[in-house]
Amino acid sequence: MTDTFGSLAETVYQQKYSWNGEQWPDTCKRVVDHVMRPLLPELADETEKAIRERKFLPGGRYLFATGKKLHQTQNCLLMAVEDSREGWSDLMRRITAGLMSGAGIGVVYSKLRPKGAHINGTGGESTGPLALMQMVNEAGRHIRQGGARRSAIWAGLHWNHADALDFIALKDWTDEQQAAKERNFDAPAPMDGTNISVILDDEFFAAYHDSKHKRHELAHTVYWRVVENMLETGEPGFSVDIAENAGEHLRNACTEVTSADDNDICNLGSLNLARIESREEFARIAKLATAFLMCGSLYSLVPFSEVADTRTKNRRLGLGLMGVGEWLAVRGKKYGPDAELGDWLDEYAKSGEWANEFADRLDVSRPVKTRAVAPAGTISIIAETTSGLEPMFAPAYKRCYATPAGWKYQYVIDSAAERLAAKGIDPDSVDSAYSLAFDPEIRMEFQAWLQTYVDHGISSTINLPSIDQQTFTTSEFGHALIKHLPHMRGITTYPDGARGGQPLTVASYQEAKGSVGVEYEEVGNENACAGGVCGI
Known about the structure:
The protein is an alpha/beta fold.
């Protein structure tokens, strides 16, 4: 066992990233020895120490693939598709190669003619972008990402595409499809392996706010349809590409990395604010992390040659953050914009300067952008902190699961809550995704504020109460969002229970702390999580 890890972090590490009995220090050494030591040896030991102490963690692809024959350590691919037979077939070639190599994919379909449009060459009618999206979704269902895990896919369509309203409703599953998903998570449903977003540009905001604009009515119709869905099902979200970011509508699967260039690629790693003691240390770790990702842009293989060409042109880095929620809580701060945090983020924003310095030393192209806040799911579990910019989800949970003797549940305490309690802070007093769910504008405001320090985007999901428990109206939510949306690069939501069986029920820290490890009988839960053991 790796004695510095809690049990969940240890389990995730051993299952996903450890090679042949490796312990955590072995993995850190393997990653740095292959990626960084050959190129910047004078920084290798210090960077290895930062990773070992979990103050900086490279993306999971680095931990998993470094040292392998197929060492594709960069993450998702960003793609566009052309409106032709060749464009469709070329996209399928690229997504197949990408998914098989372990990459997630994001595709924008806005160039495709709408469903029913005339095809000059054959005299027939186009099946439209939604048909191709569903082909890609089905490819992801059967390929499995890298042969090892469920594929990560994103699809985007511009707000003014003729098929936009049908796109908004694409994941409105029937009651039968929803029930099948609850019985078996792998049961098929439309676009169930794909996240979707409506893309907003400068014209959208001009049309929305100008009643005389020729597309004013369309802008309002699209916007409010999406808002209604966000509150009920959580899909689609919005992607925003305006002002200096105009044209950067291509996205990775989690949407934090953006590009205007087809066949671009992510390069991710996250700084763990919760484990860093001072602004000065944070600046140093951020510089080391930037150097590591620059080396990674030279080390990583890519799935096809066009990606290599775009990478050479753009050399995008995605240096992100995690532990933001814990950093605030430990200092007794509310979840929201904060002057001290802003001082730290001023150091983070220097990553562009550092990247240029290392690019010149390595004699490679300078990165066009360097910062992107990814969700950092399993990486934040290993780091044992809050993910991305998210608050702690809840201090504790009741986790239900099926056994031969019937439904049972156990209490689980969030690892960040345990550390807060050890420092004398009551975890139940800390802002959490659950407690903030009834006032979503707090999350919007904080994301918009933090975006000012990030040159790519931020991937963050705003948790909401279920549609029948929401205390705010659709109008209140929508008017709050339109105020903050121009200052964000995107937004997604998740209403509680929107996609079926809930494995977790929120509990207080006080309720859970004396009951961890005890199995209880779940009464009256015969239909919960009917597929078996539930995951999240």
